[in-house]
Amino acid sequence: MTHHLIATSATVPESVKIGPFCVIGENVVLGENVILGVGCVLGDGAKVGAGSVLGNYISIGQGTEIGLQTRIGDHTTIYPQAILGENGFIGSNSSIGRLPKASATSTVKAQNDLLPLQMGNGYTIGCSAVLYAGTNYADKAFIGDGAVVRERCSIGQNVVIGSGVVVENDTKIGEFTKIQTGSYITAYMEIEEQVFIAPMVTTTNDNYMGRTEKRFKSIKGATIQRGARIGGGAILLPGVKVAPETFVAAGALVSKDTTEKRVIKGFPAKDLRAVPEEELL
Which of 40, 84, 269, 275 has the fewest other C-beta atoms within 10 Å? Predict the structure, then answer.
């Protein structure tokens, strides 16, 4: 008794190892030396690259493509049509490529026509991360434990999104940017390349805080330009532009646009001095 169900149209090489109670759907393609743990379910048309290792009780949606040499932790769900690159790692209990469901009063309405999640090569996704459909990740993205990244975002190469970070919808993050533990990146932001955001930074996008209809026309998060640094616990108000190489001190309240290569601090933040030459990119 094999204790698993494999569709006759599935491609399963002899080198594949399948744990008990797995279900492999129609036209699934498994590469050489794939390992499936206990209770894995692979939807119709899914593809798993050679050398990949799937843990226990993993669900792979219909049409999903998983690149070679990928490791996926126990109890993780990969939603239909997601495309994951090669040499990736996903921790346990994560949800990858899920569709959003908005509340009745949300400014963002649910969309069932989003493009699938696409992940580049060499990525790392921690445990209990939730990544929504409609977002693209370039190579070597790092997503920490418990992070949430919403739909229609663009994540550049070598971006680090730390543990517990939330990145809301329609946000663009440039390459080599680092966002540290617990920061909140609101919807409709643009963060350019090589930006550093320290822990517990808060960004906002709604000057009306949910009141009056005019807010729908003016919702906009901050723009953080190349090489800017945002200190721990800082707050960025809606629509502000943080100029290139700005240094925002810890705990500052940024209520207006900044000047390039200047240090600002205070509540509200005020210009203090120039950024030292040796600290510039």
Answer: 275
